[in-house]
Specification:
266 residues, alpha+beta, Metallo-beta-lactamase, Chain A, six-stranded mixed sheet, 6 helices, 17 strands, 21% helix
């Protein structure tokens, strides 16, 4: 039995004798099936072709894959007392990286912004014997159910002192960000997108297919984050960081987005 990964989005599926017939996450309009068609890779083949690495990314240590795989995101190790919360997830956990994380204290929990980064969450949870927090509004996108997954409901959930999960919606119904008060930071995944111009952020229903969100949805995201103070914003890839003025940037970016989709920009 093999827990196959989708080669396009990185989703991992319940172990089976043969690859799944399709990847529902890639069939969804927020993702895509490439012209070459659906492809799958086994855990052993993934581990043979890639390694994981830990390196500094702003105020945090990040965990990524070399070479990049599927969407190519990196995760972040967010301090939570003597241990860490793994924010977002990557497909592969190898022994050397796991040993280094354990040497530093291990994981208290895993929390993930949205289904495109669920990927190898079960392997990570099993390796560190910790829960995975996902918003209940996105339960349909869990391709590999497991007892370690804890679905939370409502608008916020406290993970540790100063660490708060916030449901923003938008990109996905359960789209979540993590507010880290100690580091004055918002960890946003794709829910609030760090873009090349670091004076602004972006919002989309589908990034690869360029499908926008309604203006009111984006303004609602900005309103949801209004009570929280944060200077930096961390996106989903290495060096995707807004270093300063993050809260004001989200506010004015939401306003600019709304004007744009209403046809009010020149």
């Amino acid at each position: 039995m093999t827990a196959f990964f989708c080669a396009t989005c990185g989703a991992q599926f319940t172990p089976s004798d043969a690859p799944p017939d399709n990847c529902p996450i890639c069939d969804d309009q927020r993702q895509y099936v490439p012209p070459s068609g659906q492809a799958w890779i086994s855990e052993p083949d993934l581990a043979a072709a890639h390694r994981t690495e830990i390196r500094r990314d702003g105020a945090y240590d990040g965990v990524g894959m070399d070479p990049a795989f599927a969407i190519g995101q990196r995760a972040l190790l967010v301090p939570a007392g003597d241990r860490f919360v793994l924010w977002d997830c990557i497909p592969l956990v190898d022994d050397d990286t796991a040993a280094e994380i354990e040497r530093r204290g291990g994981l208290a929990a895993i929390a993930i912004s949205h289904p495109h980064y669920y990927t190898g969450m079960v392997n990570w949870a099993r390796r560190f014997d910790c829960p995975v927090y996902l918003h209940a509004d996105d339960r349909e996108w869990i391709m590999r159910p497991h007892d370690a997954i804890e679905l939370w409901e409502g608008e916020t959930r406290e993970l540790a002192d100063g660490l708060t999960l916030i449901r923003c919606g938008g990109h996905f119904a359960g789209g979540t960000v993590l507010h880290d008060a100690a580091n004055d930071a918002l960890l946003s995944g794709d829910i609030v997108q760090v873009i090349p111009d670091r004076d602004w952020v972006g919002f989309m229903y589908s990034y690869p297919n360029l499908i926008p969100l309604p203006a009111e949805t984006v303004l609602a995201i900005a309103r949801t984050l209004e009570p929280y103070a944060f200077d930096a914003i961390y996106g989903a890839w290495w060096e995707r960081i807004v270093p300063h003025d993050g809260a004001a940037i989200v506010r004015r970016s939401g306003e600019r987005y709304a004007r744009a989709v209403r046809g009010e920009l020149p």
